[in-house]
From TrEMBL:
Organism listed in the record: Vreelandella alkaliphila
Cofactor(s), names only, from the UniProt record: [4Fe-4S] cluster
Reaction it catalyzes: [PQQ precursor protein] + S-adenosyl-L-methionine = E-Y cross-linked-[PQQ precursor protein] + 5'-deoxyadenosine + L-methionine + H(+)
Subunit: Interacts with PqqD. The interaction is necessary for activity of PqqE.
NCBIfam families the UniProt entry points to: PQQ_syn_pqqE (TIGR02109), rSAM_more_4Fe4S (TIGR04085)
Protein name: PqqA peptide cyclase
CDD domains: Radical_SAM, SPASM_PqqE
The enzyme's E.C. designation: 1.21.98.4
Its job: Catalyzes the cross-linking of a glutamate residue and a tyrosine residue in the PqqA protein as part of the biosynthesis of pyrroloquinoline quinone (PQQ).
EC class name: oxidoreductase
Domain spans labelled Radical SAM core: 6-225
InterPro entries linked to this entry: 4Fe4S-binding_SPASM_dom, Aldolase_TIM, Elp3/MiaA/NifB-like_rSAM, MoaA_NifB_PqqE_Fe-S-bd_CS, PQQ_synth_PqqE_bac, PqqE-like, Radical_SAM_PqqE_MftC-like, rSAM
Length: 402
């Protein structure tokens, strides 16, 4: 039965795998990604694509992990194309070859976005944990352009690379990029775990935005059409974002193991999510508790229910509220009206005195993931046996820090 008050999904993010050869300390994948080994096979993904398209989804992103690890990527792209999706591949570029760029183009892929870690190979290696990745990314950016795609590059900015912003934009210009997304790190998953080492200072942010504006003028004066999108980190804002355009409103993520989420970070919340192996996408979207939980305004705290902006920002991000306050029903602390907004002010103030140290970054890899899971399970076992005080479920990273 369809709940008539809910609009259909427009976006599907297909996270094909959590496997990835890189180890970015700002990765938004779940800390316990090694727990989800049971990836959907090709037929199961075909079924997901068909169901989502039948429901009305038109935009499709393939991501991960590194989606190029999946050898059936071309087949999935081809199926998506036949179904009428507009398709986008979000990749680190590792695993891409000129042949594969061409094969993906033949399969009907519409768009490729490659991420860069830094402007120079040394910092890129320190951040991604790979000596070869940077050179390969540059070569593949050129191959993508040569295959006739618009070249879109993405850089996650943080304390260790944000001062390189001028060099990063110059590099993108040299590569012939059509659009560059300068996305300041948002603190979910591994980025939340590493946030103290990743958060820039306010001065760094101001300088970086000014440098971006200078580059916009330079590019315009040269008649060069390369758009620069500078995304400010939420922690430095006063108003929360309308996360995913509203919970269960337009966006749906299917995780590698088939779990269906309103956004790719929602796995961090203390709630159960349905799986396409057991339930149809239609029932999940319209009927499941998970997707209905934060729709509308009924769930909101009084502060948001009485606020004129409630339909604009939907009370902010549930994952951010939970990670920062331990309560997924709270107003997002990014909001200046939130009683917990001071948490962010304190974090920014504390961090302004730290010296950036790459050695303190915890890399996103299988060994660390298993270790974090182990820590969480020990804590949970202690609580159940009464050897540790019961407490609300804490995000793994809080447990790890204890
Ligand atoms: S952010 Fe880095 S580690 Fe995470 S999936 Fe992307 S490339 Fe891999
Ligand atoms: S009080 Fe709630 S609805 Fe109002 S601006 Fe803040 S988060 Fe948005």
């Amino acid at each position: 039965m369809v709940n008539k008050t809910t609009s259909p999904p427009l976006w599907l993010l297909a996270e094909l795998t959590y496997r990835c050869p890189l180890q970015c300390a700002y990765c938004s994948n779940p800390l316990e990604f090694t727990r989800y080994q049971n990836e959907l096979d090709t037929d199961a993904w075909f079924s997901v694509l068909r169901q989502a398209r039948a429901m009305g989804a038109a935009q499709l992103g393939f991501s991960g992990g590194e989606p190029l690890i999946r050898q059936d990527l071309e087949a999935l792209v081809s199926e998506a194309r036949q179904l009428g999706f507009y398709t986008n591949l979000l990749t680190s570029g590792v695993g891409l070859t000129a042949q594969r760029v061409n094969a993906l183009a033949e399969a009907g892929l519409d768009h490729i976005q490659i991420s860069l870690q830094a402007a120079d190979p040394e910092l890129a290696q320190a951040l991604a944990g790979s000596a070869k990745a940077h050179a390969n990314k540059l070569a593949m950016a050129k191959a993508v352009k040569a295959a006739g795609y618009p070249m879109v590059l993405n850089v996650v900015l943080h304390r260790h690379n944000i001062d390189q912003i001028g060099d990063l934009i110059a590099l993108c210009d040299e590569l012939g990029a059509d659009a560059v997304e300068l996305a300041n790190c948002q603190y979910y998953g591994w980025a939340f775990l590493n946030r103290q080492a990743l958060m820039p200072t306010r001065e760094q942010l101001v300088r970086a935005e000014a440098e971006t504006n200078r580059w916009r003028e330079t590019l315009a004066a040269r008649g060069r059409d390369m758009s620069l999108l500078f995304v400010v980190p939420d922690y430095f804002e006063q108003a929360p974002k309308a996360c995913m355009g509203g919970w269960g409103s337009i966006f749906m993520t299917v995780a590698p193991d088939g779990a269906v989420l309103p956004c790719h970070s929602a796995r961090e919340l203390p709630m159960a999510f349905p799986n396409v192996k057991e339930t149809s996408l239609q029932d999940i979207w319209y009927q499941s508790d998970a997707f209905n939980r934060f729709r509308g305004t009924q769930w909101m705290p009084a502060l948001c229910q009485q606020c004129d902006d409630r339909d604009k920002d939907h009370g902010g991000c549930r994952c951010q509220a939970y990670l920062l306050t331990g309560d997924m029903n709270a107003t997002d602390p990014v909001c200046q009206h939130s009683p917990q907004h001071g948490l962010l002010e304190s974090l920014i103030a504390e961090n302004s005195h730290n010296t950036p140290d790459q050695a303190t970054l915890i890399p996103r890899n299988a060994r660390q993931s298993k270790q974090l899971q182990g820590q969480a399970e020990i804590q949970s076992g202690l609580r159940q046996s009464g050897l540790a005080a019961p407490s609300p479920r804490q995000p793994l990273e809080l447990i790890y820090r204890q």
